[in-house]
Amino acid sequence: MPGQLEPAANDRDLLLRAAQDEMSAFEKREAEFRKKDRQERAERLHIPLQADS
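The chain above was modelled as a monomer; its predicted structure follows.
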């Protein structure tokens, strides 16, 4: 029986790792999008961006 559980656990770990990688990539794209959007809005409204962001 333990031999049967091991591949399932490994599959789960692989799936979890893939999901985490996808989430990290999404969060990076989202942060870049927000930064670009913030810059564009600041330019449109003629206001300076704060250096802390």
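The chain has a mean pLDDT of 87.
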